[in-house]
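Reviewer 2 asked us to include a model.

Predict the structure of this chain.
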Amino acid sequence: MKMDAVTLPRLMISAAQKSSGKTTITLGILSHLRSRGISVRSFKKGPDYIDPMWHKLASGNECYNLDPFLMGRDVCIDSFLRNSRSGNFAVSLIEGNHGLHDGISLDGSDSSAGLASMLNTPVLLVVDSRKTNRGVAALVMGMQAMQPQVRIAGVVLNQVQSARQGEKQKLAIEHYCKVPVLGVIPHDEELVIPERHLGLTTVGETVDAVRFITGAAERLERYCDMGAVMALFDMAFPVGTPQVEICAVKPHVRARIGVFRDAAFCFYYPDNLSSLQENGAELVFIDSMTENSLPDIDGLYLGGGFPESFFDVLSSRKGLIRDLRERVKSGMPLYAECGGLIYLSRSAEYGGDKYDLAGILPLDIGFQQRPAGHGYLDLKSCTESVWFGMDERIKAHEFHYAKPLLSSEACSYQFEVLRGYGVTGKRDGAIDHHVFASFAHLHALSTPLWAPRFVFLASRYKDRCSSC
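Predicted model (structure tokens):
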């Protein structure tokens, strides 16, 4: 059932294929808008954590993920409308992932094109021009014809080798595709964000990140018709408002949930943190690389990130590890994902060295050259726990080069892995009563009972400690 249609100025930046420069173009537009006092809400299609960090730095505002596979159609639309309208944003900008039509489903419903279609959003297509000539028009025509069909409202040619090449491509696209080319950006090795195995490097790892963003904006302003690009936002058609059932519990219970948030643990969906708060949690952020003990908290959330880059520091915080072990023994609920699971293990071998870690889980972790798990997860609960019910199905995402070195059967597991790898290839979600640790990154909007359960466990622990 649909309610009133809503009109919001919006635009998607996508590309024919990954690594074409769409993030650089997105950052340049966000910086351009911000410099002119235009408030913009940005979104990233897919489960990525790193691009949203760059978006936030460029726009000055939080970036939210939209993932049709994890969240479904109605939840994606609801999240987009709710976050676009909160804060009186003038426009919304969505960055696609991979190529415009890349996705899991044959019908393309979970692709960037699928998201643009469900949000009735025009697309600015970024094309890597380096290895083509007039034939680039065939590429754009294919993007136009492929299902689901979307409105490619403009094209930006990126990494153009010469003025002659750019002019040939521009004439061919505008003649055969009937789409305006709004920018011809010359090849520039400096205007590329360094990449690592998870994609782009994080903002914290990149020297002069602000200068890079400013440089991206300057390049766009020099080589693109920014007036025409800005006009694309107003080409969006109205989008219907879905009826989405809100499962969150009203915050009549209160608990303090600690969150490791630093350079080692930086992967948190904003929706996950806000869902905890909406269900009664007060979040307490903790720097795991400087603190020697835990603050007064009733639960702990360990997200993902790159703990392997900081094993020497993390393993040296003996006081923090000792305090964590004592809190876990006392029954404090602890939820960990990916990097958090690694931290909770007995040890990890990385770069030829072995590091002693928290020792909460009977696992020893090693890293390999190729991903152990990469992509979406489909999980089915094979047991009843305080975290998940029997037969409960969970959609999530994983990307990890780490896995247990030896047999991991010493752990009990929550989930059977129907798609993906998880911890063992067949199981994921190590559980020990109030402790849960998984390689799965779940999104609170696709798993609406996760936040209220976590807050309930933390509040119950708080009450038990108060009565002691």
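The mean pLDDT is 92. The two ends are 51 Å apart (CA to CA). We have added this to the supplementary material.
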